[in-house]
Specification:
Rossmann fold; alpha/beta; 2 domains; Oxidized Rhodanese, domain 1
Length: about 350
């Protein structure tokens, strides 16, 4: 009988996880902790695939075998010669086929107890999707709401610094959650990588303790929050930050200070609002950017764009926010944020007790 291959459930039994897919495949998403040792790089993978389609599978396999052998030999010399005989690596490719099979065969011939992941990355991806459907139901969320500029993310992080459990979706998505939330020179992860990071974060939480999270929409930048996750959050207990307009403007001027030196980038982001705002309004905001009148710009963006959107979104998606505990403030400084975090923790702890 052919021995069974290790599955996703066996990941912890291995000393190291090796992803032999191309760098581009690895960059899109990979099993957490896996190192990338491609047996075909991006260009070589295209070369072999083109031969397979345009010439013949036989010709593709010949050149493919030569390239794979050269790459495995290089990885052996550069990365693995110091591994002891007891070292137990797990190797995977796209679907557990030839690429991972080649390295596994060689490693086993050397004497290492190597495993080839059954189903490869596709099995991991199926695992992520299934777990993100089921896992959110095990957690009790306390949802922090508040209009744009209320320092919700900073308050959430301060709650985490106090020892409470948090789920920082915007950090995982590398985005601040609004049309101006794009972080310059720092792209978002792929949807698959975001979901892998989300699963890892969820799996590290204790279901017996509450989890603080920010009120989010279904999309954070270009990324979609999984349906089961967003529905569970929307069913959580709500707390509302009610910060004054002046406090929000002051906070945003500090939190988005990188826009002050990237005026062209800011104008490009404002231009994406053309389906929601009139040409005259956008023209005025563009002029405020060029004039450097940041307080006026931020105040108008909040009052004319973000606040109406926020109100409609909360009425539709977070109806419980209307009956939630509210935390008014005119201070969103570092110390003010810490005080709000402490007050929210004490309020929620008292309710649970």
């Amino acid at each position: 009988m052919k021995p069974s291959r290790p599955t996703v459930a066996d990941l912890a039994a291995y000393d190291e996880i090796i992803d032999v897919r191309s760098p581009a495949e690895y960059a899109e998403d990979h099993i957490p902790g896996a190192i990338n040792c491609p047996v075909l790089d991006d260009a070589q993978r295209i070369q072999v695939g083109t031969l397979y389609k345009q010439v013949s599978p036989f010709e593709a396999k010949k050149i493919g075998a030569a390239l794979v052998s050269e790459n495995i030999a290089r990885h052996l010399k550069e990365r693995f010669l110091d591994r002891p005989k007891s070292w137990k690596p797990l190797i995977y490719c796209w679907r557990g086929g030839d690429r991972s099979g080649s390295m596994t065969t060689i490693f086993k011939a050397i004497g290492w107890p190597a495993g080839q992941l059954d189903g490869g990355y596709k099995a991991w991806r199926s695992h992520v999707i299934a777990r993100l459907e089921e896992l959110p139901q095990h957690y009790r969320f306390i949802v922090i709401g508040g209009a744009t500029g209320s320092a919700k993310t900073r308050i959430l992080q301060a709650i985490g610094d106090s020892g409470e459990q948090i789920l920082d979706l915007e950090n995982l998505a590398n985005h601040k959650g609004s049309v101006l939330g794009v972080l310059p020179d720092s792209p978002q992860p792929s949807q698959k990588a975001f979901e892998t990071a989300l699963l890892k974060a969820l799996a590290g939480l204790d279901p017996a303790r509450p989890v603080f999270v920010e009120a989010e929409s279904r999309k954070i930048g270009n990324l979609h929050v999984p349906e089961a996750m967003i529905e569970r959050i929307r069913g959580g207990q709500c707390v509302a930050i009610e910060a004054t307009l002046d406090a929000r403007v002051t906070f945003l001027l500090k939190d988005y200070d990188y826009f002050l030196t990237r005026q062209d980038f800011l104008c490009q982001r404002l231009d994406t609002l053309r389906t929601l705002q009139s040409r005259e309004t956008l023209g005025r905001w563009q002029q405020l950017v060029h004039d450097g009148d940041w307080p006026t710009l931020v105040g108008e963006l909040l009052e004319q764009h973000y606040d109406p959107l926020y109100q409609r979104s909360q009425d539709r998606n977070y109806a419980g926010m209307q009956d939630s505990g509210s935390f008014p403030t005119d201070d969103l400084s570092v110390d003010g944020i810490k005080r709000l975090a402490t007050a929210i923790i004490h309020s929620r702890t008292a309710q649970i007790a």
